Task: inverse folding
């Protein structure tokens, strides 16, 4: 569909500009080899300044397509969206001036024969007019925050996969954007580096009132940094709210955890047949028992364990975000 048929025209005030990001009814269909794939089916999204929203969903759910439309890299087939008050179709160049973007393949746009520092300066200066002194100050600050100073003067081609990913994140923030889109930012990062990035992003969003949209498959990451999560599957929004609300929204499922790997298949089957038990799942060396009322089921589970000379640690736990995710997309717990 031509760009004139989608999006808002300049000056259209029908959308609520109290949101840093607002999208309504976004549709996108890909055409390949005579086949059509509906990536988005009427997606809405609102994000305020200072808010971090994590997009969750299985592979192919439409998360990256949504981010690419909001960051002006794709045109929607239908619907409209504004970023920092600018329409993503008719005012795309204005959007690009005030946003940061870290995509899954963003490292490909770096110059391999320049150092990390030179790449960051080139991006800041050539595309945003930031002078060398100011750019270097920002580069040093980001490198300090991410413990990345040792890699600043290395040629980009020599960086590891994790270091290249860190560069992509730094490049998305060096312009001090009003809005930033981060597509799986912790991909390729070791646990320590990922933790530093999450800590920085939380402080950055709040202290500067920056709206951050983060796609992730890492449930721990979503719980640590998000103010809200938006669950997308097959191009549609299934859920929007806090991680706690997501856990509670799936079902009223409660969990009993049995610690230890000594429980055999026979005991597992006995527990699975207890009235009120919805399922039994082995998680590493533990068993997680899903039920409607843990306090009612727990004594019966303990009775079975004792009858079979088993005395593992048993307790009532919360449903994890990953379990809620699996239930929501139909994969069970």
Result:
């Amino acid at each position: 569909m031509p760009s004139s048929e989608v999006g808002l025209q300049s000056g259209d005030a029908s959308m609520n500009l109290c949101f840093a990001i607002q999208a309504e009814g976004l549709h996108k269909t890909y055409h390949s080899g005579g086949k059509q794939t509906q990536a988005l089916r009427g997606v809405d999204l609102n994000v305020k300044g200072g808010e971090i929203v994590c997009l969750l969903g299985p592979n192919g759910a439409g998360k990256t397509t949504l981010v690419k439309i909001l960051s002006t890299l794709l045109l929607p087939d239908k619907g409209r969206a504004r970023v920092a008050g600018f329409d993503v179709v008719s005012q795309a160049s204005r959007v690009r001036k005030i946003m940061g973007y870290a995509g899954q393949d963003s490292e490909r746009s770096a110059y391999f024969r320049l150092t990390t520092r030179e790449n960051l300066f080139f991006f800041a200066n050539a595309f945003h007019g930031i002078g060398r002194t100011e750019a270097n100050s920002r580069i040093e600050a980001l490198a300090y925050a991410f413990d990345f100073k040792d890699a600043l003067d290395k040629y980009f081609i020599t960086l590891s996969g994790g270091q290249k990913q860190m560069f992509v994140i730094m490049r998305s923030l060096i312009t001090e954007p009003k809005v930033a889109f981060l597509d799986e930012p912790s991909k390729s990062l070791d646990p320590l580096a990922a933790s530093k990035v999450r800590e920085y992003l939380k402080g950055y969003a709040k202290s500067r009132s920056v709206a951050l949209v983060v796609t992730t498959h890492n449930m721990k990451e979503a719980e640590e940094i998000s103010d809200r999560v938006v669950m997308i599957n097959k191009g549609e929004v299934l859920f929007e709210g806090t991680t706690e609300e997501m856990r509670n929204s799936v079902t009223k499922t409660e969990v009993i955890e049995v610690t230890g790997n000594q429980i055999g298949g026979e005991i597992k089957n006995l527990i699975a047949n207890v009235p009120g038990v919805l399922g039994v799942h082995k998680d590493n060396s533990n068993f997680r028992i899903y039920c409607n009322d843990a306090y009612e089921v727990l004594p019966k589970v303990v009775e079975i364990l004792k009858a079979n000379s088993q005395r593992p640690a048993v307790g009532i736990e919360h449903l994890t975000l990953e379990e809620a995710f699996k239930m929501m997309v139909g994969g069970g717990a």
About this structure: The two ends are 40 Å apart (CA to CA). The longest helix spans residues 191-208. The chain has two domains: 19-247, 250-330. The chain is about 35% helix and 25% strand.
